[in-house]
Amino acid sequence: KLVLGIETSCDDTAAAVVDEAGNVLGEALQCQREVHLKTGGIIPHVAQQLHRENIEQVVKEALSVSGVSVNELTAIATTVKPGLALSLEVGLDYSLKLVNKYQKPFIPIHHMEAHALTIRLTNQVEFPFLVLLLSGGHCILAVAQGVSDFLLLGQSIDIAPGDMLDKVARRLSLIKHPECHGMAGGKAIEHLAQTGNRQQYTFSLPMQRYRNCDFSFSGLQNLINNTIIQKEKEEGIQEGELLSCVKDIAAAVQHVVAIHIIQRTYRAMLFCIKNGILSPKHATLVVSGGVASNQYIRKGLQALANANSFAFLSPPPRLCTDNGVMIAWNGIERLRAGLGVLNSTEGIRFEPKAPLGTDISNQVEEDS
Ligand code: ATP
Ligand code: FE
């Protein structure tokens, strides 16, 4: 079995060919980050235009590196939800053209399901496992019970951690920082935090009175903004000029984000064990998504897992951020499970918003 995966849900145009054993035969990725960094965020029609310019070449490159022709593919898998409408549209349109031209089965992919299942490509891990997805658009705690069977324990009630880190990075003008050239916001904060002193600032933790697994980052973002404004006043500098203390702020921000995530994940662990959803003998915590490539957050979660006798697994950073491999792999998983493989493309549409799994977040709150 050979699957071509195509991803365009946000700002990366990506494709890959993966076989049944999880071998990545070929992959290609065109990242739009540098363009969007200049405009201070993703402008959807700009992202769409870039996807249109790049998709054909990216898919061709993935196929040619893998030495596989479209005819040899078992199926084509493409992200159809959730994501930016204009971005999803490009990947879906292009895929359907290929599907119809070569008469191939089509596998519509849920982007967050793909992030969650990536770990099964890199490691041997059986269902069920606890999965924490930390990215630019999402913050989700769920139990993966099967390829397309998730229990949603909690999620961010406002913005995602990656979004928050990007906004803070923008507010601190990190794009101008000599040490952070071309880095995504979260990456720049991680880099600067390494040589900062987090004890210079303290930000209070969100949601201390909510006994559930939800997250919140926008109040925190406001607190951080206010601190930056105050500091600018003290130093007598204008917004947009670099503060001398950016490293210390970065370290404190990274720390509070990590602790918030760890607290909510701890609650999810307790809930799953107490309710027999996971067995204490072989419980596993899987962490993925772009923010999961942050070593500080990863280490914190690893320590949490160790303390609670959970195995800790996370894909390598390049598979944590958006890529074509995870989409192709999700296609393989769905083929093997006999799930969602379509032989007609009629009525297939993209969906900008799409929940992951069955929402049981109310039960978490009642239980604790
Ligand atoms: P989603 O998957 O929710 O649709 P997305 O695909 O845009 O969102 P990803 O590509 O998984 O998100 O992750 C991008 C985010 O990860 C950005 O917000 C970026 O700042 C953040 N990020 C990347 N590297 C790091 C890092 N080392 N530390 C913290 N955050 C990081
Ligand atoms: Fe993503």
TrEMBL record:
A single Gene Ontology CC term: mitochondrion
Chief location category: mitochondrion
Keyword Transferase among UniProt keywords: yes
Matches recorded under InterPro entries: ATPase_NBD (IPR043129), Gcp-like_dom (IPR000905), KAE1/TsaD (IPR017861), TsaD (IPR022450)
Position of the signal peptide: none
GO molecular function per UniProt: metal ion binding; tRNA N(6)-L-threonylcarbamoyladenine synthase activity
Any GO BP: tRNA threonylcarbamoyladenosine modification
UniProt-listed Enzyme Commission number(s): 2.3.1.234
UniProt remark on cofactor binding: Binds 1 divalent metal cation per subunit.
Gene3D superfamilies: 3.30.420.40
Keywords per UniProt: Acyltransferase, Metal-binding, Mitochondrion, Transferase, Transit peptide, tRNA processing
Required cofactor names: a divalent metal cation
Subcellular location: Mitochondrion
Coiled coil: none
Every Gcp-like domain range: 24-329
Catalytically driven reaction(s): L-threonylcarbamoyladenylate + adenosine(37) in tRNA = N(6)-L-threonylcarbamoyladenosine(37) in tRNA + AMP + H(+)
Alphabetical list of HAMAP family matching this protein: TsaD (MF_01445)
Role, per record: Required for the formation of a threonylcarbamoyl group on adenosine at position 37 (t(6)A37) in mitochondrial tRNAs that read codons beginning with adenine. Probably involved in the transfer of the threonylcarbamoyl moiety of threonylcarbamoyl-AMP (TC-AMP) to the N6 group of A37. Involved in mitochondrial genome maintenance.
Family classification: Belongs to the KAE1 / TsaD family.
Protein name per the record: N(6)-L-threonylcarbamoyladenine synthase
Organism (species): Anas zonorhyncha (Eastern spot-billed duck)
